[in-house]
Design a protein that fits this description.
The chain is an alpha/beta fold. The protein has helices spanning 13-24, 59-62, 93-104, 216-229, 282-297, 310-325, 327-340, 343-350, 356-364, 368-380; strands at residues 2-9, 33-36, 47-52, 68-70, 72-74, 80-82, 87-92, 110-113, 117-122, 127-131, 135-143, 155-166, 175-180, 189-198, 201-210, 235-247, 252-253, 264-266, 390-391. The chain has three domains: 2-71 and 91-148 and 250-297, FAD/NAD(P)-binding domain; 155-247, Alpha-Beta Plaits (2-Layer Sandwich); 310-391, no CATH class.
């Protein structure tokens, strides 16, 4: 039975992000690695976007493969605003996979197999991994397999996207549209993204925050109408993107570090990297990868978890309750947020990087009724902000 320092259960974005983070600090050559992934990762199966001021630890991992950058945003009030000091960036997964493939080929101690992890067995000095075809052992397993959630009130960020090409120049490639709520809500919180990459090309994405996952059938008429109202009637759909991300506090981590000696380390969504109230995940995955890589390179005995501050956990719980039971009020909150606050504060708030004083400024100018209702429901249902959804 072959033994490795690290085995990765899954070879998608989360696993590759950690390997790239190790490579960036010259820490990959020290380890023997096996990546177990059942699928070939070489197509553009998803698009990742986030805002950045270039100072975060996520940016260096993708700086050289950014497909497009936007300096301005068309906000929820159809007003054009500069994103400065931020910019909104787009990374195509095909480029991310290709970059990782080229780098991993430089390391003879890294192996990849097309297989699937079936079972794990912890022993005193190692972890045993069984796949459909073979058995292996390792010191640590990084697990990016989809999380198993128990919540009976699970919400999803689900979306259907088209990458389109029009027959004439219609787009401004410097302006992106985020969270355009002027679409049918259908008992959830729904909005549109429009991300132009050329004057005749764009990614249009219809997104829902809700318990029912968005389908192609219900999305297509809304997307067609949205484009028609922009005067776009003739276009070719070059790519489809359909996916969903859980919006849940269930995966939140309770402690800053994994216990010393823990052999199974969740990464990606399983580690709680998706912000519960929005489903935003990729930037958090990259930042967590950079943290893990630094600790692994230094041979630290305890590895970090992506722990959320208590105040942001509280805000997320209130908003999740609204999204689940009062989605119409949730729309009012997001609209007011963009109406009353400078854009850089909003983006830092969504990234959980505002001070408590800034949080108070934001809350003071929000509609009070939705928050009072959500707080009342939390009290009546006996839910604890400190305990709900935390994993030890």
């Amino acid at each position: 039975m072959k033994h490795y320092d690290f085995i990765f259960a899954g070879g998608g974005g989360s696993s590759l992000a950690l390997l790239l983070a190790l490579h960036n600090i010259d820490g990959l050559k020290d380890f023997s690695v096996l990546i177990i992934e059942p699928n070939t990762k070489n197509t553009n199966d998803r698009t990742w976007c986030f805002w950045t001021d270039h100072r975060d630890s996520a940016y260096p991992l993708v700086e050289d493969i950014i497909d497009h950058r936007w300096a301005k945003i068309n906000n929820v009030h159809q007003q054009i605003s500069a994103l400065k000091p931020f910019e909104y960036i787009q990374i195509r997964s095909a480029d991310f996979y290709a970059k990782a493939d080229a780098i991993l080929l430089q390391y003879p101690k890294i192996e990849r197999i097309r297989d699937k992890v079936i079972s794990l067995e912890e022993q005193k000095d190692r972890l045993l991994i069984s796949t459909r075809e073979e058995n292996f052992s390792c010191d640590k397993l990084f697990d990016s397999r989809p999380p198993k959630l128990k919540s009976s009130e699970l919400l999803w960020q689900s979306f259907v996207g088209w990458r389109i090409k029009t027959d004439k120049a219609v787009f401004d490639t410097d302006i992106c549209t985020l969270m355009d709520f002027e679409v049918p809500q259908n008992g959830a919180l729904q909005f549109m993204y429009l991300l132009p990459t050329a004057d005749n090309k764009a990614l249009i994405e219809f997104t829902r925050f809700g318990s029912a996952v968005l389908s192609k059938e219900e999305s297509v008429p809304i997307m067609e109408k949205y484009l028609a109202e922009m005067g776009i009637a003739t276009y070719e759909i070059e790519e489809w993107e359909v996916d969903k991300i859980p919006m849940s506090l269930e995966l939140n981590q309770a402690a800053r570090f994994h216990p010393q000696g823990q052999r199974i380390i969740p990464i990606g969504l399983s580690a709680g990297n998706a912000k519960a109230s929005t489903g935003f995940a990729f930037k958090n995955i990259l930042k967590h990868s950079a943290q893990l890589a630094a600790h692994l390179h230094k041979r630290e005995k305890r590895l970090p978890r992506p722990v959320q501050k208590v105040n942001f956990k509280y805000y997320d719980q209130l908003l999740l309750r609204l999204l689940n039971q009062k989605p119409d009020l949730s729309k009012k909150l997001f609209v007011r947020l963009f109406e009353k606050h400078p854009l850089d504060r909003i983006l830092r708030f969504l990234d959980e990087e505002t001070s408590f004083g800034e949080d108070l400024q934001i809350m003071y100018q929000m509609p009070w009724l939705p928050f009072f209702w959500s707080i009342k429901e939390s009290i009546l249902n006996g839910s604890s902000i400190a305990k709900r959804g935390e994993r030890n």
